[in-house]
Amino acid sequence: MTKEQKIMLGHGSGGKLSHELISSLFLRHFQHPALTAMTDSAVLNLPEAQLAFTTDSYVVDPLFFPGGNIGRIAVAGTVNDLAVSGAKPMFISAAFIIEEGFPIATLEQIVTEMANEARHAGVSIVTGDTKVVGTGKCDKVFINTAGLGSFHVEFPPFPGQESVKPGDVILISGTIGDHGMAVLSARNELPVQSGLESDCACLNELILEVRKASSRIKFMRDATRGGLGTILAELCEKSKFGIEIQYETIPVRETVRGMCELLGFDPLYVANEGKVVIVAESSDAQRILLALQNHPLGKDAAIIGKVVEQHPGFCWLKTEYGSSRIVDMLAGEQLPRIC
Amino acid sequence: MTKEQKIMLGHGSGGKLSHELISSLFLRHFQHPALTAMTDSAVLNLPEAQLAFTTDSYVVDPLFFPGGNIGRIAVAGTVNDLAVSGAKPMFISAAFIIEEGFPIATLEQIVTEMANEARHAGVSIVTGDTKVVGTGKCDKVFINTAGLGSFHVEFPPFPGQESVKPGDVILISGTIGDHGMAVLSARNELPVQSGLESDCACLNELILEVRKASSRIKFMRDATRGGLGTILAELCEKSKFGIEIQYETIPVRETVRGMCELLGFDPLYVANEGKVVIVAESSDAQRILLALQNHPLGKDAAIIGKVVEQHPGFCWLKTEYGSSRIVDMLAGEQLPRIC
């Protein structure tokens, strides 16, 4: 198989071409005995019987953008979904839907990025699938990853949204809106802004550091589609309490803020791919903040607000000038195909 | 949400419309506490620590065809991949990539079929994802399912292709080619043939019966894309032995055989969605055959050949008239988007 080759329908046939593609590309990059066996399912041994299981499809457009690409997101997004559940990410599946005519060289770039990201996060890609559809029947390539993580005795699942109580603090692990604005800039829908870069990253290591620092974490979620705002609105809905966040404490890069203002986007709803929202008992707020800030991926972390008795079911954003507004869930779609 | 509504980009935004779609459609049909929690990962307890993990994307065209539809295939295909590994299928993920404008009523039909098939197979759909892409950026709807199964002490993983030895017998659980021909007929590429119906079904119950009947099974695989022929060719390659199959013993419905002859298809390479190939020690051949035939999904089961010392690496198909030919892997693509 040469890199000049293009994907043909036969590469999804389950026959000879599929086998060639799998052995010459996927197996070479995603090295794991369970995968190399090319059986119908990966057979895995897990140290604990309590597991986290998650899935996400990735349809980001364009495939490559400043700070990331569909391959990195496909691994990091699923790793993060496991990590914010409190699990140690362990195994990943990778399923590709590819448009006929897609360059094999580009597919290899994506696969390489996935392999690197998986290695970096300490997870193994152990099972997969490839389908090919005719030209015009999908947009270049879509990737689905499912993930399996295990819970360790000392780190059980987080208590969850329902355990959140007035007085609890809300933290974010860094600047918001970077991913959405980086993808938008890559679409050439606006002038290139220097310094715009996706925050796409695996957060499992950062989250482990935070867990070591505090056993009083109630809830975590990675702020992807829908942004920070949607997470907070949903948390109000589920917990039946109110939330107050301070506008000035929310970290936003100047370039991102400027671009959002220019285009009428609200950074609260712009997607991130490497930021986690943490709700914890206030007594541990500083310990958690320190643990976040001591890690390269959490250096801009901040305490941004708290859970309150007032206005149950609603999140209020307050500014230093005394004005305030309700933070609702994202309605409609700000930026389609952001991940 | 009314059934006349169509999918909008906002249904994939992660915001309000996504939440509405999830609660009013997916949660209603796929009822499971892990799913209802709407957390990033499903938290699961598994009785055993050895697991099977698999994934497949489904892009079948058309979405509905005689005997099945994309929803049933998406569940049955993944259940079968777990079952042929020897695992008890337990949990399934469901990830949708939907074209903007797709009718919600049709999505609900598909989701209902998935829920029914899962209930029937005894598996739970516990985590999921929805992405929406613009009109023309995918073909109606693609579904990915990943599956988790557990191995029980009395039913460990099958020894696998490498354990196959000369003298072992090869069985098929029923007629071949039904699925491929049913989908082809639904595409209106040929005159409607009465009695053509996909064999799309979950095989886990059938496989359990077979396991109870014999502990001398070496290898199983469901004959999907690439058909029976590709499985046998691959088995020769992996085992380093030869295979001989008898043409007359391979069950093929008359309508399927007729249509294949008319169109120049070889039933050996036509996809199935409810047939399993079993390789076992010859001493247990009759016990396995009986167990298969006693189950409705295995009533047409047959012993079709054996593993031989001769022509290592090659599978020969022999006819009663003494002629024979090599069965190679499927080259190219006979029928794109068959599953």
Biggest interface and residues each? A-B, 85 and 84 residues
In sequence order, what are the helices and strands of chain A, one letter per element? Answer: HHEEEEHEHEEEHHEHEHEHEEE
Globally, the shape of chain A reads globular
CATH topology of the largest domain in chain A: Phosphoribosyl-aminoimidazole Synthetase, Chain A, domain 2
Task: Look at the structure and give the CATH class of the largest domain in chain A.
Answer: Alpha Beta
Distance between the termini of chain A: 30 Å
Oligomer: homodimer
Specify the structural class of chain A: alpha+beta
Q: Under the CATH scheme, which architecture of the largest domain in chain A would be assigned? A: Alpha-Beta Complex
- Count helical runs of chain A: 9
Mean pLDDT of chain A, to the nearest integer, reads: 90
The domain tally of chain A reads: 2
State the low-pLDDT regions of chain A, or none: none
Strand content of chain A: 15-25%
Helix content of chain A: 25-40%
- Biggest β-sheet description of chain A: 7 strands, mixed
CATH homologous group name of the largest domain in chain A = PurM-like C-terminal domain
Radius of gyration of chain A: 21 Å
Please describe what this structure looks like.
The structure is a homodimer of 339-residue chains. By secondary structure, chain A is an alpha+beta fold. Chain A has 2 domains: 32-150, 2-Layer Sandwich (60s Ribosomal Protein L30, Chain: A); 161-327, PurM-like C-terminal domain (Phosphoribosyl-aminoimidazole Synthetase, Chain A, domain 2, Alpha-Beta Complex), CATH 3.90.650.10. Chain A contains 9 helices and 14 strands. In chain A, the strands form 3 sheets. Chain A has a 7-stranded mixed β-sheet with strand order 9-11-8-12-10-13-14, with helices on one face. In chain A, strands 2-7-5-6 form a 4-stranded mixed β-sheet. In chain A, strands 3-4 form a two-stranded antiparallel sheet. In chain A, helix 3 (70-83) packs parallel to helix 4 (104-121). The longest helix of chain A has 18 residues, at 104-121. At the A-B interface, helix 1, strand 1, strand 2, helix 3 and strand 5 of A face helix 1, strand 1, strand 2, helix 3 and strand 5 of B.
